[in-house]
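request received
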Amino acid sequence: MEPTWVRVPARRLAWLRGELARWQAEGVIDATAAERIAGRYVPGRRLSLERVVLLLGGGFLGVGLIWVVAANLDQLSPLARFAGITVVWLAAAVLGEALAGPAVRSAARLVAVLAAGGVVFQAAQSLQVPAYGSGLLGVWAAGALAYAYATHAAGPLLAALVLGASWYGWWAGEQTDSAGGVAVCLVAAGTTAISLAVLHERLRTRAGAIAGPDGAGGTQEGSAGDGETQDGPVRAGGAVTGGPVPAGIVRDVGAPSPWSGRFAAVWRAAGFLLALGGLFVAAFPGVSQGEMYGAPALWAGLTAAAVAAGAALVLGGAGDRREAAAAQVFGGAGDRREPAAAQVLGGAGDGREAAAAQVLGGAQDRREMLARRVLGGAGHRYEVLAALVMVVAAVSLVAWAPGDAEPAMGGFTAAQTARAVAGTLLYILAASWFAVAAARRDETHLVLIATVALVVFVTAQSFAVFQPLLSGAALFLALGVIFIVTGALVEYGRRRLMEATR
Amino acid sequence: MSGSSSRVSRRTAIMVAAALLLQMALLVVVLRPQLSARLSGAEYRLAAGPVDPVDPFRGAYVMLTYPGLPSAEGQAAGRVYVPLVRDGALWKGAGVERRRPAAGPYLACRTGGYGDLRCGIDSLFLPEDKARRVGSELAADRAAAVVKIDDDGNAALIDVVPR
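response:
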């Protein structure tokens, strides 16, 4: 296996080099092993300047292509326009795989995804197909999703999920004809996305868990600075042992998918946003279910959520049992087996590197890491179950429609107030849960999404609830106090959460 | 590059090609009604008028209304059918039915439950100079839409011509 390089932030690389020097001084590893370990990592930012420029260029080019279609250029016949945009699409797809630089590849893939939309809408325009239906957007989203999995690239997946969420929201709106119906559909879509994130993670960790608590034996993604690698020190440990792994140890385990970690992060972020978006709508006073139960879009969404959640719970449980078995082998065997295991895992040549990986955290740390993994498995189940509870809560909330949609002049009735309070509590609980779940994974951007969602919700709800009750200066004073208190509490909570999980 | 790398890249190439083909296949599926009407449908002329002559955001794009087609007032949301009968040189609708008529010609449409009727022949994309001419003919009530309709009632708008 050829050595691979992983881009890591400069601070993390400095930490690793410091640790390597310490292990070398303590005699844990020799200079050769330290050099080989350090040589596997290169400093770099996940989003470098050239990458930003290339992605912006790709984005402008893609949007321009769609604009060309929308402008309905009369100098070219519809067939010529369709042929032209198709050539651009196919060329971008070919360049997305053929080009050498990861940033240029990403830009070409972005153009390919956007040009695919141009192909869809140009075909529709050439056939005089009305653009008021959601079907065309659905085709674009499905194609982008297939392309993302074919290329193993997170960028197209992100685009596919944005398109897919827009399509599903539109489709649900067409069919349910009620804000409550759309809200439930969005929460169901969020549950599906969260369950798929868990499934992707199980796919990734199954092999890593069996091969060793530190992920030893797992293949490392991102050759020569892939630029999309998001791995932290734990997965970096997987790169340490590059030697052959005995078949007896990894038997019955499929190869870990190098892209599944990145894909899980994208699916989870989409799940958070969809679920919070749905609950946001459902929590508003006056939002009701309407005729949503006659809409196939709702049943399709609920079925997808149930199937994905069931799969995540079943496969997640199986993964947890395998991790427990791995714990028996790698954790329960005791420290005396560590040197031997390190030799076996690493092979003759890489034995010292394997030892370094084992010693990385020390025996105690290793057990803690294992415990966190097992607890993390349970966390997976709770994550899926919590999403299912949110679906039930959203269904219940939109079914509860006390009185008129608009509050009376004197303010809310008691039932309307109770409904508004229940919706608010539900949203706050959901956002807090998402923040905690993200913090447990040390995924700061998801914590940020959850906290921003909380602030936006409080802002909107404050206007919705207080505007009918207060007016003029009193309204602004009340809202000012609420925002300051909310901001302070959210900031305090976020800091404590991140500190607690470090 | 090693043999393993070339294998991976070949597999990736096949996967990407499959994804692109899938997108084209889905496109054909979603456009099937209009493709079917264009390929196998017979030609009919319906009286047409403008709704929104030129969309400022989409260039020469005309939304049409059909004075000869009935309203779907009173019909629940879903699929409906409009049998066509001859009216001089043109054709017009003879009511809205929930069941597919035994014989054609008829239009297979959808309604949102508000009296609207969507038969897939509402939008016309045109070059700008032609759009101006068509717009003035539509506004003067002198235009007819040429549509192709297949045996299943799928319709495709082909052109707008003077009556």
